[in-house]
Specification:
With 181 residues, this protein is of the alpha/beta class. The chain is built from 6 helices and 6 strands, in the order E-H-E-H-E-H-E-H-H-E-E-H. The chain has one domain: Rossmann fold. 34% of the residues lie in helices and 18% in strands. A 6-stranded mixed beta sheet has the order 3-2-4-1-5-6.
Length: 181
C-alpha cells in the first residue's frame, strides 16, 4: 500500500496584470491558508518521504509557508510537468518515481489535482469525501489517499480510497469562499 497526499496551492494574487500566470504570488488570504494547512498537516501526523511540486511561484510559496508551520518538509522534487497538468500527466509523473517511497505529497494546481482524485477514487457511492471533491477542491485543500498498489509504477484508475480531506474553511471560516452581495 502507498499513501498519496494532494495539496493544492493556496489562494494567489491577481492584482498585477503584468505577471505571467506562473509568476503569481500568494495573496494575504493565501498566506494565512498555507500556514493553517501546514499546522493541520503537522497535527494530522503523516510523514512524507517526498514532495513532488510544480515550480510555479504560488506553489513554492505555499510549500515554504506550510512547511514552516508544519516544522519542516522532506526533499522537494520540482517538476515543470506538474504546472497546470492534467490527471494523466500527474499519474505519469507518479508512475516514474524512483526509489519507491511509501508516502508522497503532490503540490500543484487544479483542475488536474481534483481530476486525479476523481480518477483514483472509485465513483461507487462509497466515499462521501469524493462527493465533496467532486463539488470543488478549493485552493489550499489537502487530501490523503491510500492506494492499493505495491509500487508507484502500478498506479491505475480506481486504486485508491480517499481517507482524509480538509479545506481551509474547515479550519477557519474566514478562509472560506468570499460571498458577494
Amino acid at each position: 500500500m502507498k499513501t498519496l497526499a494532494i495539496f493544492r496551492h493556496a489562494k494567489s494574487d491577481w492584482n498585477d496584470a503584468r505577471l505571467r500566470d506562473f509568476d503569481r504570488p500568494l495573496n494575504a488570504r493565501g498566506r494565512k491558508g498555507a500556514e493553517k494547512m501546514g499546522e493541520h498537516i503537522r497535527a494530522y501526523g503523516v510523514r512524507f518521504d517526498r514532495v513532488l511540486a510544480s515550480p510555479a511561484v504560488r506553489v513554492t510559496q505555499t510549500i515554504e509557508i506550510s512547511a514552516q508551520a508544519a516544522g519542516g518538509t522532506p526533499p522537494v522534487t520540482w517538476d515543470r510537468r506538474l504546472y497546470l497538468a492534467n490527471s494523466a500527466t500527474l499519474q505519469d509523473v507518479l508512475r516514474e518515481i524512483e526509489g519507491d517511497p511509501g508516502t508522497i505529497i503532490m503540490v500543484g494546481h487544479n483542475p488536474g489535482l481534483e481530476d486525479l482524485i476523481l480518477d483514483l477514487v472509485p465513483d461507487d457511492g462509497s466515499s462521501p469525501l469524493r462527493d465533496v471533491v467532486e463539488e470543488k477542491f478549493p485552493t489550499a485543500a489537502f487530501a490523503v489517499l491510500e492506494l492499493d498498489i505495491d509500487s508507484w509504477s502500478d498506479l491505475a484508475d480506481e486504486c485508491a480510497r480517499l481517507v482524509h480531506l480538509v479545506r481551509p474553511r474547515d479550519l477557519d471560516p474566514q478562509l472560506g469562499p468570499q460571498l458577494r452581495d
